[in-house]
């Protein structure tokens, strides 16, 4: 059967390929779910079975954004504990989070996904680690929401087995046993993981953090992931307090502790990595361990400024993350392009820290790298999957900035005219095509109110 083609013409294109190839005016041809061609000028003549031709004058085409760290459930606890550091924030919110159930997880996932997709995210991930006893099928609810939205998705199936009685932060009824967490994680891989080139759903093994899981869960989680051929994800080196905790409990810093448990490698990526010394960065570079940089959340929780320029110079794979919307209430990844650039310029490298094209690479190809999908997504190249975004750059907000990539990163959040995932339209003229945005907003509001009532009565 002949491929159905979409032809996009007359737009600026930032391919984010290995050479950072750009076209001031170019074309993209999509054939079914793959990018068939990209180049300067008009599309080739004589193309067959063209089902749609788009005049993208005034637009910038980029790869779809790739989110590398999030906690969807937090969509229904936004705006709380707004003046807390990480540990106090966790203590304040765990009693509420520990009471989520399946309808809440579904509503929160739909809200989180809708906000990201509307802002240019084509590949999302969720690190979900709160599985209260009797809460229902939370993983299924989250994966179902991503499937409904039409975005490419990685569920990092999280876990915690260190409750309050064992020196952890979460309530005991919100954690799993070691055996239960491992069994549930493997069952999720069995049911949902797709290893194919154009997979829409993948699973990672993701114990929460050093201070909420046992050493045994980390070790056995790494063994499980490698036995099943999936990736590993966790939080690492987020705060000074975490470093002190690891040294007190394990006699070493977080990076050395992770290495001792099998948690460094090309199949691993960690969120935050704010407090990394030269030795830590060298260990990540040597092993190919990736980083999910979450600038807004790091600022919101006063965690600090991650050494992203030093990581990139050393060869560490780095992507961008929204993080949970209880520590980044906007829930948008495209604003993280700008925040990553600006916040890193407050660090030691100042104006030389990051430029606009490096920030765009973090949000696209860098994210694809840390999710293990750089050969499939993250750049606009022939043969790759058709995950791409058209940003409208000729409005009042951007029209006087000559360089469209600088306009996208330095300027106000640009409207998304079109977002394709796997060659299918997910956003058209700024609105989601697969779901009812108003219904999602109402459901999230209702479930947030229900959760607040339950937590208040506990």
Structure overview:
The chain is α/β, with parallel strands linked by helices and 458 residues long. Helix content is 36%, strand content 22%. The protein contains 14 helices and 17 strands. The strands form 2 sheets. Strands 1, 2, 3, 4, 5, 14, 15, 16 and 17 form a 9-stranded mixed β-sheet that branches. Strands 6-7-8-9-10-11-12-13 form an 8-stranded parallel β-sheet. Helix 4 (178-192) packs parallel to helix 5 and helix 11 (334-344) packs across helix 12. The chain is globular.
In DSSP terms (H or I, runs of 4 or more residues), the helix count works out at: 14
Helical amount: 25-40%
Count of strand segments: 17
Described by the principal axes of the CA atoms, the overall outline is globular
Low-pLDDT stretches: none
Largest sheet: number of strands, sense, barrel closure? 9 strands, mixed
- Percent of residues in β-strands: 15-25%
Radius of gyration: 21 Å
State the end-to-end distance.
Answer: 59 Å
Structural class call reads: alpha/beta
Mean pLDDT: 96
In brief, what are we looking at here?
This protein is 36% helix and 22% strand. By secondary structure, the chain is of the alpha/beta class.
Write the layout of secondary structure elements.
Elements: E1 5-14, E2 22-31, E3 34-40, E4 50-55, E5 59-63, E6 65-66, H1 86-97, H2 102-118, E7 121-128, H3 138-149, E8 152-159, H4 178-192, E9 201-207, H5 215-228, E10 231-236, H6 240-250, H7 254-260, E11 268-272, H8 278-287, E12 290-293, H9 295-300, H10 308-314, E13 318-320, H11 334-344, H12 356-370, E14 388-392, H13 404-410, E15 416-421, E16 424-428, E17 431-432, H14 437-457
Parallel strand pairs: 1-4, 1-5, 6-7, 7-8, 8-9, 9-10, 10-11, 11-12, 12-13
Antiparallel strand pairs: 1-2, 2-3, 5-14, 14-15, 15-16, 16-17
Helix pairs in contact: 2-3, 2-14, 4-5, 11-12, 12-13
């Amino acid at each position: 059967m002949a491929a159905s083609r979409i032809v996009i013409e007359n737009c600026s294109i930032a391919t984010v390929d290995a050479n950072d190839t750009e076209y001031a005016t170019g074309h993209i041809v999509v054939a079914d779910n793959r990018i068939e061609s990209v180049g300067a000028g008009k599309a080739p003549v004589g193309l067959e079975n063209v089902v749609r031709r788009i005049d993208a004058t005034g637009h910038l085409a980029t790869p779809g954004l790739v989110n590398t760290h999030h906690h969807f459930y937090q969509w229904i606890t936004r705006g709380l504990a707004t003046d807390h550091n990480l540990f106090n924030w966790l203590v304040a919110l765990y009693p509420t989070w520990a009471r989520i159930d399946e309808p809440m997880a579904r509503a929160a996932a739909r809200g989180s996904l809708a906000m990201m997709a509307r802002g240019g995210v084509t590949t999302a991930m969720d690190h979900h680690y709160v599985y209260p006893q009797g809460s229902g099928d939370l993983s299924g609810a989250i994966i179902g929401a991503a499937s409904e939205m039409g975005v490419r998705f990685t569920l990092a199936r999280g876990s915690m087995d260190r409750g309050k009685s064992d020196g952890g932060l979460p309530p005991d009824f919100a954690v799993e046993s070691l055996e239960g967490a491992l069994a549930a994680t493997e069952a999720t891989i069995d049911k949902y993981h797709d290893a194919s080139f154009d997979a829409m759903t993948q699973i990672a093994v993701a114990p929460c953090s050093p201070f909420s899981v046992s050493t045994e869960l980390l070790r056995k989680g790494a063994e499980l992931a490698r036995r099943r051929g999936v990736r590993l994800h966790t939080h690492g080196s987020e705060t000074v307090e975490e470093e002190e905790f690891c040294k007190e409990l394990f006699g070493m810093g977080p990076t050395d502790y992770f290495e001792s448990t099998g948690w460094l490698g090309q199949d691993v990526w960690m969120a935050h990595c704010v407090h990394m010394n030269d030795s830590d960065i060298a260990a990540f570079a040597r092993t190919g361990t990736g980083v999910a940089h979450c600038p807004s959340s790091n600022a919101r929780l006063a965690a600090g400024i991650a050494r992203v320029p030093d990581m990139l110079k050393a060869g560490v794979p780095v992507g961008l993350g929204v993080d949970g919307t209880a520590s980044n209430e906007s829930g948008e990844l495209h604003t993280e392009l700008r925040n990553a650039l600006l916040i890193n310029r407050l660090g030691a490298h100042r104006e030389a820290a990051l430029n606009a094209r490096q920030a765009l690479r973090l949000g696209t190809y860098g994210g694809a790298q840390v999710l293990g999908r750089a050969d499939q997504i993250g750049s606009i190249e022939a043969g790759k999957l058709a995950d791409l975004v058209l940003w409208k750059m000729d409005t009042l907000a951007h029209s006087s900035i000559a360089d469209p990539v600088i306009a996208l990163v330095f300027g106000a959040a640009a409207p998304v005219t079109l977002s394709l995932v796997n060659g299918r339209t997910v956003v058209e003229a700024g609105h989601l095509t697969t779901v009812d945005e108003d219904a999602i907003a109402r459901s999230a509001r209702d479930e947030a109110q229900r959760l607040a009532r339950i937590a208040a009565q506990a």
